[in-house]
Predict the 3D structure of the following.
Amino acid sequence: MSTSHAVVVGGGIAGLSAARVLARSGVRVTVLEGSPRIGGKLRVSEIAGIPVDEGAEAMLARRPEGLDLVDELGRGDDLVHPGTTSSAIYSRGALRRFPAGQVMGVPADLRALAASRVLSPAGLARVPLDLVLPETPHGDDVSVASFIGARLGREVVDRLVEPLLGGVYAGRADLLSFEATLPGVAAAARTNRSLIGAVRGVRDAAPTNQGPVFATLPGGLGALPQLVADDVVAAGGTVRTGATVRELRRRDGGWRLTIGPTRDPEYLDADAVVIAVPAAPASRLLAAEVPAAARQLAGIEYASMAIVTLAYRTSAFPRLPKGSGYLVPAVESDPRRGGKGVKAVTFSSIKWPHLRDGDPDVIAVRCSIGRFGEERTLQRSDAELAAIARAELAATCGVTEAPAESRVSRWGGGLPQYNVGHADRVAAIRAAVAAEPGLAVAGAAYDGLGVPACIASARAAATRILDDLCSREGAEQ
């Protein structure tokens, strides 16, 4: 396949991972990234002299794809793991430990749930009704709030499930798909009348010693895209930035891509194309040749968010935090406590002890602001968003000193929403794309937002392209 040319549109971790598989398989690869930098939502920069991620800060260590990629790049021994994953939730006026025995907020241990005091007495009393209620019908996909609320009550949704899903999708439980966002729980619920019983089964089936939950690189997860890009180039590929693809059309058994401004277009021909950009630009590129996929992609909504990173001296904290951070349910976003808009706080220097090696006197804190539908909050200035984050830490941690440095990272339209019907939508996209030889899609819009899921998506796309190219070459011989 050395004569075949594949173009990957998008230089995020999915696009780069797909390009790496193709290049390592002998395909001539060109990666086209429209922005001035590669990496997509993975980016790291220094604050107060410490490298702290501006986007995703870790990858799941219990999925193999991310760890395998780092190992293949020769950096497996460099991986670091959290010093603590103990987290809390702000509920009913106080920070409270997350109850033990839960899966994405769905409780399995009612004693632990009661001891956590996350729920009100009325909300707690509602939960065990799940054990005696008739089975909830399993028909078409429903929202997380609809199914879990019917089984366990609305408080479990608002104060446990939605905050955890908000940390992943920045979404709303009333809109997010139960099947797409909680697939393991949804599958177990299909064979168990009680949701509590289903979650207990999920926990019982999990390995007893799964090892660390998360992993990252010492220089930040934002360092990973460049490592992959360097490997692509070493295998003979090309990685271009500032190369926006405006149009994709069929041509002579392959594809023609139009790049750059309309007044001075550049044309690039390819035998195969992997589209690894968010849903909206992917929809525009596919509109002419694969309209069925384009229509479905246009229906995937995105949430925007911002991450405010604050670097404090240790003396700013009356007591150093013990856990990795805490979540703030949407129902607790009360302007009277100065925390409006903050949905999650991560004590990065506590969660990742290696960050304190450079300067033990600095504590880096990341505050996530913005949920789906809260675009007005994100229209505020950087100074205003930083003030919101500082007020949050003053209210919950007693931090009144000014930070030594602050940074605001904005991710407009950064998180795809896996709303009700998402699985059917993705199946329709894939079916339409599969009908077109030499074309594949990859990225966070389809089967998972995390880094390992994006890598898995990329490898599946690359495998499809390789199969198509092999079939084509075989037919020509």
